[in-house]
Amino acid sequence: MSLDAARAVADAVLYEGYLLYPYRASAAKNRSRWQFGVLGPPSAGAEAFGEAPDLAMQCLLRPGGRPAVTILLRFLQLQVREVQRRQPDGSHTPAAALTVAGSPVLSWDEAVEREITLCDVPLTGRAEFPIAVPGGAEEEPLAEPGGTVVGRIVRRREPLTARLTTAAEPDGGLLRLTVAVANEHPARVAGKDAAVRRSLLGTHLLLEARDAAFVSLLDPPPGAAAAAARCRQHRCWPALAGPHGSSDVLLGAPIILEDHPRLAEQSPGPLFDLCEIDEILTLRVMTMTEAEKAEARATDPRAREIVERCDALTPADLQRLHGAWHDAEPAGDVPWWDPAADAAVDPATDTAVVGGVRIARGSLVRLRPSRRADAQDVFLAGRVARVTAVLSDVDGEVHVAVVPVDDPAADLHDWYGRYYYFAPDELEPLAAAEPAAASVLVAGVGNVFLGDDGFGPEVARRLTAEGGLPPGVRVTDYGIRGMHLAYDLLGGYDALVLVDALPADGPPGEVVVLEMDPADDPSGQVDAHRMDPVTVLGAVTRLGGRLPAAYLVGCRAATVAEGIGLSPVVAAAVPEAITATRTLLDRVRGTAGPGS
Hints:
It contains 13 helices and 25 strands.
């Protein structure tokens, strides 16, 4: 029974990425297939873009009397489906598509499931098993309803040659089993299509133990932790399979899975995209036009099944796809979560102690990533960040949410609540005398779709690209988001430098530096989709904020007609505006201070 339960998940792995929405041969995403578990021919030329020819995994077993494993090697063999048109002389010529009985028939690459079973492999020493899968060809006539043959389908498969190797060795009181699979196609292969046709696709392993029990490598028991750390994986990752609590079946997949993975019982059938949501894909399929559905049906029998299954779903079926509540697996009689504990935590006010210093929301820290938890750590190391929340999980661990203060999108991270998370020991508290929050905001404003009105955003972009700005200066392109700028000014900046296009009251391309007075328009109302700088400043006080000192670096526009791109005279003024902005920043930072 454990093996039967594991097969459903293994089938999902086998066909992952086989065909993606919109399930049509003409879709660009379906022209580059076979993304997982591909074992390419070992002698593929560079022009073939062939995948590596092998994979290998190591797992642990707790042996009994006479331990052995049954190994199922499963993969797809590519099958070329070529449509051929019948000519008057009886010969046939390849065709991308034919219309037969009013329906399209397309040329396409199909796949044939292959499963090689090696029974009762003893867990002693090393063993090798040669694998040979024959090629072949079949023909299927295509005829109109009246019996007239208009063409044929020719299906071809290339032979495959591979080798599976096992090696068992003791590791303390456990056995470490290595299973390796390699493509051994003997000839050199040129070209991507030729390489794929001689590859094992979606390759994975199912192992069933006899007189032995597999040990989890993801959550090993204390006595097996060291042995689990010594296991090495190459393009294949083992996970316990079958029902929770079982340990006799293991899945070695080209995708990293949790132990005992399972398919959602609400899912009515495969969609070949494990990272997508069934409900969303189903609704997308249902909104396809009849012509698009016809092409999908003609692309592949499995695509036809998807289209017909989605079209046949009832409202009750769709409701099931909308989701369900599942309780977490209990750990004996201990509840996994105590709802009453929620009352004792508040991410906005909770604190954590780092090196004897208490940090909380608003604290400044320097990031020192040390757990190799995310590839982005290399870009974050050493940067200064602002703490936005201190959180505790149900296991009692503490996580600190932060936003880098020099991130141009820092305001958007706050806006959407998307943060980076670190453990307290990965943070270095900064003293109050080491301020990192921006005190001067440089705001590029304007509509990039109205010619020279895009002057402000262009200067902001160039300033950010050039870098070298003084500490405490933040540059942001606000476009026409007036309300966004108004809310950001509530953060207490000491000074604001607006960069904007000016009316053509003087020579086009003339750069002007002005000090602004928001009292010029104290009653203006902010339109969230327009950018009137004076009105925005007036709105800050109505929102309860303090007005900073405000300056304008402007450029006389030549044209604000619809169109993308600055006029030549205004584009030539951008470097002068950047210089004027930098000069103004040096002056402002020398005079502005908190509360000034």
